[in-house]
Here is the input.
Amino acid sequence: MFADVSLPVPLTRAFTYRVPATLEHRVQLGCRVSVPFAGRLLTGMVVALNPDAPEGGTRDIARLLDEEPVLDEDLLKLGAWIANYYCAPPGEVFRAMTPLGGEVHRRRVFELTDAGRETARQLVIGDLTGDRGLQILRLLEARPLAEATIKAKVENAANILRTLEKKGLIARQTTDEERDPLRAASERLRVEFTARPSAKLRRAERELLSYLELHPGPHNLKSVEEAVKGAGHAARSLGRRGLLKIEAELPAVGLALREVGPRAERVLTPAQSEACARIREALDVGGYRAFLLEGVTGSGKTEVYLRSIEACLEKGRNALMLVPEIGLTPAVAAQFFERFGEGVAILHSAIGDAERAGEWRRLREGRARVAVATRSGVFAPLDRIGLIVVDEEHDQSYKQQDTPRYHGRDVALVRALDIGACVVLGSATPSLESRYNAERGKYTRLELAERVEKRPLPKVEIVDMRAEFLETRRMATFSRRLAAAIAERLERGEQTMLLMNRRGFSSYAACRKCGERIECPNCAVTLTFHHRERRMLCHYCGYAERPPERCPKCDSEHIQFLGSGSERVEDELRSAFPKAHVARIDRDTVSGKGSFERILAAFRSGDYDILTGTQMIAKGHDIANVTLVGVVSADIGLSLPDFRAAERTFQLLTQAAGRAGRGGRPGEVLIQTINPDHYAIRFAAEQNYTKFYEKEAGFRQAMRYPPFAALANILVRGERKDQAEAWAAELGRMLEPSPEGVKVLGPAEAPVARIRGEHRYQMIVKAASRQRLGEILASIRHHAAQQKWPAAALILDVDPLTLL
Ligand code: ADP
Ligand code: ZN
Ligand code: ZN
Here is the structure.
């Protein structure tokens, strides 16, 4: 038997391996296997099995990682679609689709280039002792090695590596190495008898097999060790030879969310009833159908999802609910547990690998029938899916920022179409794409135009910060209006949320004398000042240095810290309102797992009066006592050179405003801006999505941006600027003159011209047809492969969310 294996390498084709006799009948479609490839072991996905030997020699599969398929045929097919649509290597797609990503870890290694291999070969005969460069080449001849390994073997290796790299004899590569699962502690392994082997066995191995044969079914290895002496070692050894079924044990799920309060039977609003009825009808009919549930903030979309999922389960079909990265709080999960109890599985990137694997298994075995999941949960192993809900469908976290750069919402639609399921996309501020699809009749639009219990939408006021400055002659973080409103809330014991969508204390440091700005040495961006840690930090690569005391260019002492961030807002809140309890949520305060939820829960229960932070505070949260939302600066992000800048600003402001007045008392929102006339800000203040859509759609149509064209961003990266530029120019020539129905912008330097020491050039392709775009991208990928560009040099982003 021979297996075609898709590998995580930048090639489209699969590679054929022989199935060794020990694995005969065990290797199945959709299982992961470990195979030798270019001098190392890689994990790949079995995508085809056939009895005929291919031409030429083949190597053996080294190990089988899954006794049962991790992807069924539908998911394999979905993976193939993703690979094609997003122009990504299928092996990378399958890896992203499998749940136990934690078993594989990325490693930076050095490997020989062709020139290096040649040099090593030619010189290998002579006396090489003393030449550490050649020593390294010879080490690498055997296999790629991590820098640390080389350093341990060769003195002063760092310098030599750099020289060899400059000479083009070695290159850095990122490889994936699987961690040996059999190295796990015995408590975490499960063993099961398969067959009595004919191989010669040691005593402990024989005893173990006899024991397991007499006790059929899976056993925890730890407990077997108590019965059979030396079982731990024997089991691993048998497992490695494929003579015993051994796999990681999946611990029970210990989410502390299971307590369930009494369920209040709710009377649906008429709009909720209508939406539920329409979705139920579609479920009754069966087959694919997509809805866009457009509901203002606080209109009770979640209730519609819950009832629809209930209806789906009643039909005997399973349901999948996707939520944005930070949308899956315990408060949200609790609503699902309350409704569906143990039938819910949670797939979230913030839960540990083992726990996630456990939840995954419960879904696969049908013990859980509802999955609540973030982006990659779109691949949840549920069969007979009847309904997929995508909450906050406009949210950016649905788009993966690494290869494969898929969009979870769009993959959900394709999966549903494929298996004949319904889809509900919900949002108060749908993406332009989704609303456009609804207008064209591809989705059925359902509207929840009012908040539940006839609560009013919050009253929004724009505070013109230019006028404020003229009147006060002061550049203040809080306008007089906003400061007064906060004070009022403190007096009344109500809560305030303050949005400042930028981290750090000041956004940059500059010299007052010569104008020099302090930039990251690796990236073409300014460093952000973080006050508490007293350091300048790069938000792209994580580089940090001490705040400068003198200008690095002219040596002047007059360094100014300009621009504001969430840290400064917190600081100024504390000095302006010394009695208030203030908390901040951004990526600096919530690095650890669960700290986001902890702060949010404390705010919810009234421990804090004011919560400030970045967009993390703006999304989804439903906290009744918040009656004031302030936006410190609506202008951040508005001026970015990105065609989605206005859309993103509108969404953020509308969502933030929607946090106010969700309880009994009406809410108030104050938006500070220096662009009070900008349509994104004006329509957000009116909370009028339709007006915004119409204006923005007109602009997109005129400029031929999505949803009126198929868009891709072609990014070329290189450590040497001239090299990156030359590569980009090569691609540019391929698209010259622009093919019919295609518009090409660039190649030009990307807006952020350098990140992590890599120079970046980009080309933006707008095509009237998807097919056209696909052909162009395929030819570009082909060119890069033919010219043997390094894997990291070319990035193709189909339907990019950002062009930065
Ligand atoms: P959205 O997601 O549309 O902003 P939510 O689903 O968070 O709104 O609902 C807002 C609040 O209204 C929640 O506290 C929810 O429990 C409550 N709610 C939902 N439907 C009803 C209803 N029919 N009657 C009363 N309260 C409701
Ligand atoms: Zn200076
Ligand atoms: Zn940097």
